[in-house]
Design brief:
81 residues, Ubiquitin-like (UB roll), binds FE2/S2 (inorganic) cluster
Length: 81
């Protein structure tokens, strides 16, 4: 099975085809996705797009990491980055 990479805050994160950004981050041991505007920690929680606890920034847009397919070469940032 092929493995590609995106980056999270500059760190290379491998993923397999079909994985979400959140799944790849968790598999890489990244549990802290950053902080929201109120300083609350962002992380994986519901996994179904309901809680918005997994928000990350991709191409300047805030997206739910659990619903966003991982894509090779993408630069994923924390909300406040
Ligand atoms: S983990 Fe709840 S919206 Fe992604």
């Amino acid at each position: 099975m092929s493995v590609s990479h995106f980056t999270f805050r500059g760190r290379a994160v491998p993923f397999r085809p079909g994985e979400s950004v959140a799944a790849a981050l968790l598999e890489a041991g990244i549990l802290d996705f950053g902080r929201d505007a109120n300083g609350a920690q962002l992380r994986y929680f519901c996994g179904i797009g309901a809680c918005q606890s997994c928000l990350v920034r991709i191409d300047g847009r805030l997206v739910e990491a659990c619903l966003t397919p991982a894509a090779a070469g993408t630069a994923v940032l924390a909300v406040g980055d």
